[in-house]
Specification:
The chain is mainly beta. The protein folds into three domains: 13-341, TolB, C-terminal domain (Neuraminidase); 354-447, Immunoglobulin-like; 459-564, Superoxide dismutase, copper/zinc binding domain (Immunoglobulin-like). 1% of the residues lie in helices and 49% in strands. It is built from one helix and 44 strands. An eight-stranded antiparallel sheet has the order 38-37-41-44-26-35-36-39, with no helix packed on it. Strands 30-29-32-33-34-27-28-31 form an eight-stranded antiparallel sheet, with no helix packed on it. It has a five-stranded mixed sheet with strand order 1-18-17-16-15, with no helix packed on it. The relative contact order is 0.11.
């Protein structure tokens, strides 16, 4: 929709900072403003789930969540032919529980907020211009399904007009902003029952740009304003007789976008500028201060081709459930997410699968190899092993996730008793995977470890998350590993599609027999957990000192034992 949209198209963090919300300020009168405190000593951990409407899996933003767990959001980036389209998502969260919500006759709609009584708010547009500068009009929808436009009675509106409702409480008081002809934002409250408007201002700079983004049932308002002390774009919480400035230490911009009845505020802040700009999610409480909350899919990666992303948190309910969106720097897609606080100890028992694994198909003199669990980007020799003699078939190269797909080699007749094998690298003669035969048909490809009988490589692990201590403890029992240290990590992705490291563990050590017996490694200060999938535990061939070279995986990065969740 309009570039003035708080919750609309987000190309880059720099673009947000340069948009309509970043405006000039005036001088601070220091009497009434309070300042937010620094980061808490202990952080809350969250379990993240990506939630995308399948109508556009490339662009979703979740903007509000009520105490029943209903979520407001939209899909479509707003470019011509890809308009914003609003929806509600009801629990249990699945594709069948997305319900379209679009203002009648509109070209675009965003549903930005909702209360517990069935009322939703947002804004709509009659345009879908190539410039993505369109008219915006606030709206509310009553529980009877009727839609109503609600635009502040502005005297000098922008052209085209910009008016958005962004939040609503259970007394049916909504908040939003309108933009004047000088591109200054003006926050306001709108009482749906009485059809009356009232301004929301910074008491120290009543004419400064301000956006009212959220309101709780106590009437406390969170939003974004131009700090008159220094002209920066900061968040705020207006509660009773206080106007609290919310500025994350070290950030160049802070936006408060949601608030619950406990005065827990959520939003986003920016670090860096221009090409180095990046958005991070946050939560804030008056007693605890700021906590950075990142969707784990945007964590820095140690793998080639995977870039950093960004996180924005838009809504929070009284249970502390968070909704927002993250930008995937690898794909360029924007995904909605739900993050729920983890408050109880969780234990997972995992069987560790020997790697690599896959299949080999043989037909008409062609050998086709499909394998997973190799070092990403690594080159290997495939061959036939007959009575201890190796005949090379050719080379194969794993992709960025450690997979080989349908690598085909032409061969003549295959001697009886042969096996198809994969060697450990382009020059190494150690066999790391093999079939039990090489006749026509499909064969399973299974891992082998040099010096150990077939089937020796196996293991199990127990993972315990303790929210009180904010630790993840990993206990491993395994056999058939090369004696010595083996690096271990919790990664994002799966054993079949390797991804970036989420949590690093101290190396596990196999004894002279190749056994790891009841060894435990612990990760501390854990504030992001994923209990419902999207990660895997990996024991590597090498140790922490040799699995990377100049930031890139070496042949020793190859997984030996792996378990996906």
């Amino acid at each position: 929709m309009s570039n003035a949209s708080r919750k609309g198209l987000r190309v880059t963090a720099a673009a947000v900072a340069a948009g309509a919300l970043a405006v000039a300020g005036t001088t601070l009168a220091a009497s009434w403003a309070a300042v937010a405190q620094a980061a808490p000593a202990r952080q809350q951990a969250y379990n993240f789930v990506t939630l995308d409407n399948a109508k556009d899996p490339t662009f979703n933003q979740l903007l509000g969540i009520n105490n029943h767990g209903t979520i407001a959001g939209y899909f479509g980036m707003g470019a011509p032919g890809h308009p914003n389209q609003g929806y509600l998502l009801y629990p249990p969260y699945g594709q069948g529980n997305y319900v379209d919500e679009n203002f009648p006759g509109s070209m675009q709609t965003q549903v930005t907020g909702l209360n517990d009584n069935g009322i939703t708010v947002g804004f709509w547009s009659s345009m879908n211009n190539a410039t993505m500068v369109n008219d915006n009009h606030g709206f509310y929808r009553l529980s009877d399904g009727s839609f109503h436009t609600a635009d502040f009675p502005a005297t000098s509106p922008a052209s085209p007009p910009v008016d958005q409702l962004l939040g609503v409480n259970d007394t049916d008081v909504a908040v939003g902003f309108w933009t004047d002809s000088a591109s200054t934002n003006h926050g306001y409250e709108y009482n749906i029952k009485s059809d009356t408007y009232s301004p929301v201002t910074d008491p120290n700079a009543p004419t400064a740009s301000l956006t009212a983004a959220a309101i709780n049932n106590r009437g406390d308002v969170a939003g974004i304003y131009t700090n008159p002390a220094n002209g920066t774009t900061d968040g705020f919480l207006k509660k009773g007789g206080q106007f609290i400035d919310l500025a994350v230490p070290g950030a160049v911009m802070t936006q408060a976008l949601g608030v619950n009845d406990h005065d827990e505020v959520v939003g986003t802040y920016q670090t860096g500028t221009l090409e180095g700009a990046r958005l991070h999610g946050f939560t804030w409480t008056q007693g605890g201060g700021f906590q950075t909350v990142e969707d784990p899919d945007v964590l820095p990666s140690s793998l080639p081709g995977i870039n950093n992303g960004e996180t924005t948190i838009n809504g929070v309910n009284d249970e502390g459930d968070l909704v927002g969106f993250y930008f995937d720097g690898n794909t360029g897609f924007t995904h909605g997410f739900l993050a729920t606080p983890v408050t109880h100890t969780v234990a997972l028992n995992l069987n560790l699968t020997p790697m690599p694994q896959g299949t080999v198909s043989i037909a008409n003199g062609v050998v086709a190899v499909n394998a997973t669990g190799l070092t990403p980007g690594s080159a290997h020799v495939a061959g036939l092993l007959t009575n201890g003699q190796l005949t090379a078939l050719g080379s194969l190269t794993a992709d960025a996730t450690g997979d080989v797909s349908a690598a085909a080699f032409t061969t003549g007749s295959i001697p009886g008793g042969s096996r198809v094998v994969i060697l450990d690298g382009a020059a190494n003669t150690s066999v790391i995977a093999e079939t039990n035969g090489a006749g026509a048909g499909q064969h399973s490809l299974h891992a082998v470890e040099a010096g150990f009988p077939e089937g020796s490589l196996q293991g199990r692990a127990t993972i315990v998350y303790n929210p009180g201590a904010q630790t993840i403890s990993v206990t491993v029992n395994a056999t058939g590993l090369t004696p010595g240290a083996h690096a271990a990590h919790i990664h994002l992705g799966s054993c079949q599609s390797q991804g970036p490291v989420k949590d690093m563990l101290m190396d596990f050590t196999a004894d002279s027999r190749g056994d790891i017996a009841n060894q435990t490694r612990t990760v501390t200060r854990v504030s992001t957990v994923m209990l419902t999938g999207g990660w895997y535990l990996n024991l590597h061939q090498g140790n922490s000192n040799n699995i990377l070279s100049n930031g890139q995986p070496t042949i020793f990065f190859r997984p030996l034992l792996c378990a996906s969740i």
